[in-house]
């Protein structure tokens, strides 16, 4: 007998989708509903729900890539795809409730995003097939033992940031640095893994990683102030979802302290960071969208291994570099796609 999540769902198209009352303050992405283009008679309409930590530029890039991947496989909004978006407003404690609400809507597919979001989905979603994206660590989220041995109703694309390359760039720009500071939520498995890797890399080079942990977005500003007060040579922030949702709370103390800020999320460099060494999320989304088309058309996620895909991307902020007196080496400038001065 086929698993219950494989049973075909109704293809009835509805004009709007309401969040269940229990969601309270959980919100959609604010992009509006798809245009009412008539669906060809007899063509199935797939209902796909995105569930994520909170709205941000990197998340939007991943969603755009996902939808492009589906479109390349003949599944697109306004024709045979209906999209639901829900987020937890940057609060990790709201994720399980949000995922339960998506499960209750009888969707054809749920797309958990971020490692904490995936962890919440693992606990809350039992019937609906899932394809994750915008996720560092699916194993740490509990989605499987390995990329091949995973829960039967889930598959997806994992994208871990280039931590060693990030540390190398930092030390190339600041060869006399002795202490790197970082801020993260210790409840996020993705951040714990990334920070642990950085700690080991820096220790092997004789450097210290000074760590400040926070538990929610409301603690980011004070945490950043405490970190800056410890006088690190450089501040580095990996893709911690809690910090990203309140990133301006890091930017101000760092700027006031005249410290360089290095991110693993290039999308946010323009806010005041020196540079970002990270992942292009659109390619990850594209690959996950193509995978999702296979699942929507009946292929079991159980037989689709997780995929690791992390296309490296560097973004430089020349305005911040000028203020800090930093000159980027030509090789880094060229990789970032900027003309060498």
Give me the oligomer status: single chain
- Tell me the Rg in angstroms: 21 Å
Tally of individual domains = 2
User: What's the architecture of the largest domain in CATH terms?
Assistant: 3-Layer(aba) Sandwich
Helix content: 25-40%
Q: What's the CATH topology label of the largest domain?
A: Rossmann fold
Would you report the number of β strands? Answer: 12
CATH-assigned homologous superfamily of the largest domain: Response regulator
**First-residue to last-residue Cα separation:** 65 Å
The biggest sheet amounts to:
6 strands, mixed
Q: What is the count of DSSP helices, taking H or I runs of 4+ residues?
A: 11
What does the model show?
It is a single chain. The chain is elongated and about 65 Å long. It has two domains: 4-159 and 281-310, Response regulator (Rossmann fold), CATH 3.40.50; 163-278 and 313-335, 3-Layer(aba) Sandwich (Rossmann fold). It has 341 residues and is of the alpha/beta class. It is built from eleven helices and twelve strands.
